[in-house]
Amino acid sequence: MLFLQNQIVLITGASSGIGAACATVFASAGAKLILAARRQERLQELADSLVEKYHSTSEQIHLLQLDVRDRSAVESAISSLPPAWSEIDILINNAGLSRGLDKLHEGEFADWEEMIDTNIKGLLYLTRYVVPGMVSRDRGHVINIGSIAGYQTYPGGNVYCGTKAAVRAISEGLKQDLLGTSVKVSSVDPGMVETEFSEVRFHGNTERANQVYQGVTPLTAADVADVVFFCATRPSHVNINQVILMPVDQASTILVNRRR
Known about the structure:
By secondary structure, the protein is α/β, with parallel strands linked by helices. It has helices spanning 17-28, 40-54, 71-79, 109-137, 158-177, 197-201, 206-212, 221-232, and strands at 8-12, 32-37, 61-65, 90-93, 141-145, 184-190, 242-245. The protein has a single domain, classed as 3-Layer(aba) Sandwich (Rossmann fold), CATH 3.40.50. It is built from 8 helices and 7 strands; from the N terminus they run E-H-E-H-E-H-E-H-E-H-E-H-H-H-E.
C-alpha cells in the first residue's frame, strides 16, 4: 500500500505474538520498522525472516533491545534514534502481559508490579517520548493494544483487568488531548488470542496454558494485526477510536462456547 511506503512504524513487544504479526503486515506494505523488545535474538530472527520474505533490505528495519518498564532506557532509545529513523509515523504500543489468576487478597506483589510497569507505565513512557514529535510534525498515529479485559472484569483478573481499563482510559484521554492536531489515536481490544499470552500468565506452564483454548477456535495474532493495519490505513480524516474483536465462540470475558 503506497500510503505506508517508507512510513516509520515503531512496534513494542515485537519479538512474538501480536507484535510480530503487526511487523509482518506492515513490512508487506513497505513500511520501515522499528522493532522493540527485550529478546534481541528473537528480534533478529524476525528481522531476518521479513527481509527474506519481502525482499526488503536490512536498512528497512531498525532493532531496539528495550524493556519498556525502564523509563530512562525508553528515553535514551527514542532520543538516540538515527536521524533517518527519528520521525516516527505510527506507534503501536503492544508490549504487555498478564501474570497469574490469583484472588486479589492472595496475589503476588511481583506479578502486580510487572503488569502495572509493563502494561501502563511502559505504554505511557513510549507515548510521552514519541507523541511530541508527532504533534510538532502535525501527523502520526498511536495504536494501543488493549483487551476486552478493559471493559469486563473476570474472576482472578483483578489487576490485569485494571491495567487494561487504564489503557482504555489513557487512549480516550490522549485522543482528547490531541484534539486540534492531525494525530490519531486508536485502541484495538481483542478477546481470546492464542499467542504466548497464557504461557506467560502461568509462568511457563504450557499444559495449563493450552487448556485456556481447549475446544475453542481463538483469534490469531494475525487476526489482530489485520485490524491494527485497517486502523492505520484509513483516510486522513478518519479515526478509528476503538475496536473490540472476539472469536465467534466468545461472547464475553467469561462466556465461552467450548466445542467438545
